[in-house]
Amino acid sequence: MTSTSLRSGRITSEPGAKPRDDELDLFGLTHAGKVRPENQDHFLLCTVHPQAVIHATSLPDPEKLSARGQRLATVMLVADGVGGSAAGREASQLAAETIMRYVTSTLRSYPAMGSQNDEEFLSALRTAALEADATVRTAAAERAQATGRLSSKSMATTLTLALAVWPWLYVVQVGDSRCYFFWNGDLQQVTRDQTMAQDLVDKGALPADRAAQSPFSHVLASSIGGPETVPEVTRIDVTKRGCVILLCTDGLTKHVSDPEIAAQLGAMQSAEQVCHALLDLALERGGSDNITVLAARAPLKKS
């Protein structure tokens, strides 16, 4: 079953100047943790640019013509394979590759991105997540056909994609890998965990402060390749200089609380430093799952 959902942005800020490429502070890492035999997480951190690639010319100095152009977007992606087998690792890889091919093409095709009138672009992002879902389902069917039986392990993955297209951040989520926004000491979870526990909280059947302890806290209600796929798309304003975008899989949030994440981001020296600090915290507390952390910011300009 597939469907889509649109969440309205909750975070606004005063306008500022678009950061230059050399002002971006970006870093990501992934770790198997201390318990899992392999790492089924995948991540991607990149910038997207229009580019002219010259294949042949009679003009002198063709390298002067090969400019990559102004940055269209900064892309952050995490995918957490489900199933505890090679199927989970393959699912996260396929989902990441599929959505990135779709999104990079889309970014070059939609002049409305980054504007107030971007419903077509938002729809394209939802479609991209469903394309990833279709790719994983096809791979699962091919695997079942090759083995002659249905796999006992599910082939599914979470997928959280954040695209910074000035002045907005577009976040596409399926599953429970999270996107956070941090600014001026305040940490806000941009995404909603698509878990059975969160569904119970939303229905009033489970107190929010007991969700983390619920046996359903990590049972996915929506996933790429799973029984139900519900992409949620959120758009928020990210023009506050010095704000931080953090993406992570639940291998981090199982061990590190939101206040602790906020404290680390508040003391942040660089994207690389804070990713390692958060990883170290999760490992010190058991590292029971694969851990992936990505951080991005445009630091405040020095006066």
Write structural notes for this entry.
The chain is an alpha+beta fold and 303 residues long. The protein has a single domain, classed as PPM-type phosphatase domain (Phosphatase 2c, domain 1, 4-Layer Sandwich). The chain contains 6 helices and 12 strands. The chain has helices spanning 86-107, 119-147, 196-202, 250-253, 258-266, 271-284; strands at residues 5-7, 25-31, 41-48, 73-82, 156-157, 159-165, 168-174, 178-183, 186-189, 232-237, 244-248, 291-297. Strands 1, 3, 4, 5, 6, 7 and 10 form a 7-stranded mixed beta sheet that branches. Strand 8 and strand 9 (186-189) form a beta hairpin. Helix 1 (86-107) packs antiparallel against helix 2 (119-147). It is globular, with a radius of gyration of 20 Å. The termini are far apart.
Write the layout of secondary structure elements.
Blueprint: E1 5-7, E2 25-31, E3 41-48, E4 73-82, H1 86-107, H2 119-147, E5 156-157, E6 159-165, E7 168-174, E8 178-183, E9 186-189, H3 196-202, E10 232-237, E11 244-248, H4 250-253, H5 258-266, H6 271-284, E12 291-297
Parallel strand pairs: 1-10
Antiparallel strand pairs: 2-12, 3-4, 4-5, 4-6, 6-7, 7-10, 8-9, 8-11, 11-12
Helix pairs in contact: 1-2
Total domains, how many? 1
How many H/I helical runs? Answer: 6
* N to C succession of SSEs: EEEEHHEEEEEHEEHHHE
Structural class by SSE content: alpha+beta
What CATH first level would be assigned? Alpha Beta
CATH topology: Phosphatase 2c, domain 1
What value does the average pLDDT take? 86
Beta-strand percent range: 15-25%
Task: Classify the helix fraction into a percent range.
Answer: 25-40%
What is the CA-atom radius of gyration, in angstroms?
20 Å
| Overall 3D form | globular
The CATH superfamily is identified as: PPM-type phosphatase domain
How does CATH name the architecture?
4-Layer Sandwich
